[in-house]
Amino acid sequence: MSSTTSPSDSSSRSFKGKPGCRVYLIRHGETANADIICLNGHYDVPLSDKGLEQARQIAEALKHQPIRAVYSSDLKRTRHGAELIAEPHGLQPVTLPELRELSFGKWEGMSLAELNEKFPGEMDRRIQHTELFRADGGESFQELNDRVIPKYLEITSRHPDEIIVLMCHGGVIRTILAHLLGFPIANLFRISQFYAAVNIIQFYEDQVTVELLNGTWQQIT
User: Fold this and answer.
1) Tens digit of pLDDT for each residue in 129-188?
2) What secondary structure letter does DSSP report for 198?
């Protein structure tokens, strides 16, 4: 579901009524262990050099937007990107543990290769039972939904007529988008979210629209 087109311009939005909160929902950049594909979850891995550059590109693209608040999880890979985005606007990011990635429990930080060696078949079982599967000591996607969505709704209600940024994780973003689009949790992975993916959510008086999904910093408007 990667977007290949630019978001609609303001004139095409007029029939939807008065615009309200505008959310730039952004996935963090590449992580330092991306080359071995790890289940990071709450594991506090930093960004790679490429990930930092991706965050700088997004910050530059957002520099001239009238952003009023920046939120992120309290993990390094989102916090660092949020700080870069917030700085030109004289803001301090608000870090929230509720916006952390899905917890993988005892799998935290483990590479896929290691997981498949130690727990053969478990990843396939997770994919087949996305909604309720829970790693040992971790969370299910239903539990992630129950943690993230109330906090997301609380945040957006604080900014009814403002532009805000949420720097989050792939699972968190998929959960928010699935909530907005009416997707069942079982279909979360039908939504693509690359590193540094940009999603734009626009609230109106009676509805909300996802104007950009899995886009890039070049598509920020």
Assistant:
1) 889 999 999 999 999 999 999 999 999 999 999 999 999 999 999 999 999 999 999 999
2) E
Q: Identify the active-site residue in 28, 42, 80, 89.
A: 28
Residue 101 appears among annotated catalytic residues: yes
C-alpha dihedral, 156 to 18 to 163 to 214, nearest 10°: 80
- Separation between Cα atoms, residue 69 and residue 119, nearest integer Å: 42
**Domains delineated in the chain:** 13-219 (3.40.50.1240)
Q: What is the mean pLDDT of the chain?
A: 92
What are all long-range contacts of 88-97, with beta carbons under 8 Å and residues at least 24 apart?
88/59, 88/62, 88/63, 91/67, 93/167, 94/69, 94/70, 95/71, 96/71, 96/72, 96/151, 97/73
Per-residue pLDDT at 5: 38
Q: Give, in order, the Cα–Cα distances in Å from 107 to each of 11, 39, 170, 194.
A: 48, 7, 17, 22
Query: CB-hemisphere CA count at 13 Å for 182?
Result: 3
Among residues 180, 161, 164, the alpha carbon closest in space to that of 172 is found at: 180
CA angle 97, 28, 77 (to 5 degrees): 55
Name the residue among 130, 122, 109 with its Cα closest to residue 175: 130
Q: Is this model's pTM higher than 0.85 or not?
A: yes
Of 30, 83, 89, 101, which is the active-site residue?
101
Length of the chain: 221
Tell me if 148 sits within 8 A of 175, measured CB to CB.
yes
The stretches in the chain having pLDDT less than 50 are: 1-8
pLDDT of residue 144: 97
